[in-house]
Amino acid sequence: MENPFKKILHNEELPEVLKNKVLNDVAMIKLSIDVADLFVVKYPNTIADLLNGGISKADKKDKE
Fold first, then answer.
1. What's the per-residue H, E or C state across 15-52?
2. Does 59 reside within a domain?
3. Looking at beta carbons, which pairs linking 21-28 to residues 24 or more positions away fall under 8 Å?
4. Can you give the residue range of the structural domain that contains 59?
5. pTM above 0.90?
6. Are 30 and 38 in contact, with CB atoms under 8 Å apart?
7. Residue 58: inside a domain, yes or no?
């Protein structure tokens, strides 16, 4: 299988439309990861801390 990146000439520039599309795709992926982290990791940890009276798991380990 041929590597398509080897076909790009070194002095050739990509069109602005293509650059913007790639940057927008990367930004959307980063946003998706941030939202997933917020709702899958941080939000449940916050709720658990609130239900435990504000004592986090790290605080419990320090007390033991």
1. CHHHHHHHHHHHHHHHHHHHHHHHHHHHHHHHHHHHHC
2. yes
3. none
4. 15-63
5. no
6. no
7. yes
Number of domains in the chain: 1
Q: Which pLDDT band holds residue 57 (cuts at 50, 70, 90)? A: low
Q: Is-contact 22 29, C-beta < 8 A?
A: no
> Is 10 inside any structural domain?
no
Measured CA to CA, the distance from residue 11 to residue 6 in angstroms comes to 13
Quickly tell me which residue has 């609130």 as its tokens: 50
Query: Could you give the 3-state DSSP secondary structure of residue 6?
Result: helix
Query: pLDDT, tens digit, for every residue of 5-51?
Result: 777 666 677 788 888 999 999 999 999 999 999 888 888 888 888 88
